Amino acid sequence: MDEGGKTTRSDIWGGVGWVSFGLVILVEALRMDRFTSMGATIYTMPGFVPGMIGVVVMVLGTVLTLRGWRRLKDATSPDGPSEPILNGRIAITILLTLVYAGGLIGRVPFWLATALFVGAFTWLFAPTDQAVQRRLIGCILAGVLTSAVVSIVFQEVFLVRLP
């Protein structure tokens, strides 16, 4: 067992999950059209950034897995019951992401979907000991600013039309 009395098996399984997810991202990024016939370079190909993100996710998942493995191996006391692989925070994150990607994107303007997603995410994971008014203002600012920055960067810098 490691600090806090929690076992490290969830780190191992979580890390394996992240490595698998990163691999899927990388494979799908490599399958994207490369637009070489239009003179695109490796840095301007649509799959470049998602591919790099997939690699980073794989690396971080590997680090998490190795850290969990090392802690499990170094543990002197027998392991207690392991944490569930799907805890509440992960379930909320998955649900919000599915609502965002599957329910909002394409049905409402991208800027609004992103603002709602970031605002809701920030609200649900903000410290509960904050005053409600401060928490609400922080969530609205986070949603609006993130939406504006992402929309401007993708449309003006990367020249990507957003849904």
Helix content range of the residues, please? 55-70%
Q: Briefly note the structural class of the backbone.
A: mainly alpha
Number of structurally distinct domains: 2
- What's the count of strands? 0
Distance between the termini: 47 Å
Largest sheet: none
Give the count of helical stretches. Answer: 5
β-strand percent reads under 5%
Question: What does it look like?
Answer:
The chain is an all-alpha fold. It folds into two domains: 1-83; 86-163, no CATH class. Helices cover 67% and strands 0% of the residues. It has helices spanning 9-31, 48-74, 88-104, 110-125, 132-157. α3 packs antiparallel against α4 (110-125) and α4 (110-125) runs antiparallel to α5. The longest helix is centred in the middle third of the chain and has 27 residues, at 48-74. It is flat and about 55 Å long. Mean pLDDT is 85; it is low at 1-5.
